């Protein structure tokens, strides 16, 4: 017997987050490269971004063949969000020409290990400039544990990037994340919930 799912958000009726979804008109087009293992994870936030942003696309895969879309993106105005030694810090250059000219933001959706694997297998990504943050926003996504201190969910990373690049108000995306957390923890015993949320 298959579980009933909401047609729009693909969560069960008791965990449906549609009432918190806002349609956000973003100028910078967001391309999310999603590792296949992330798709079935209930706590994955990429689909929340896709539900909210009018300019967003999720592409699933692991390598150049899967991500052929990268060949069609403009080289000069597309950036990859990834913290490496060459990354431009968005929070330091928020008003510079190189930030103002961005038209496409590529975001890798997966654990650090899977994101690194995508980076190694997808050599097409090497052609794009990378961007990151010097100061990370506070991580709000306590229900999915990450091994690194500089971990943000895909939703948080996109929300903060768009805030810095195009001054897009991140509140609607954060409200949606809060709704997801509320719905995913609503049936947890209080002592278990406290472990996640405190």
TrEMBL record:
Alphabetized InterPro entries for the sequence: DTW, DTWD2/TAPT
E.C. numbers: 2.5.1.25
Highest rank taxon of the organism: Bacteria
All copies of domain DTW, residue ranges: 2-189
Transmembrane spans: none
One Pfam family linked to the record: DTW
UniProt feature coiled coil, ranges: none
Keyword check for tRNA processing: yes
Keywords on record: S-adenosyl-L-methionine, Transferase, tRNA processing
Signal peptide boundaries: none
GO BP: tRNA processing
GO molecular function, a single term: tRNA-uridine aminocarboxypropyltransferase activity
Similarity comment text for this entry: Belongs to the TDD superfamily. DTWD2 family.
Name of the protein: tRNA-uridine aminocarboxypropyltransferase
Organism: Pseudoalteromonas espejiana
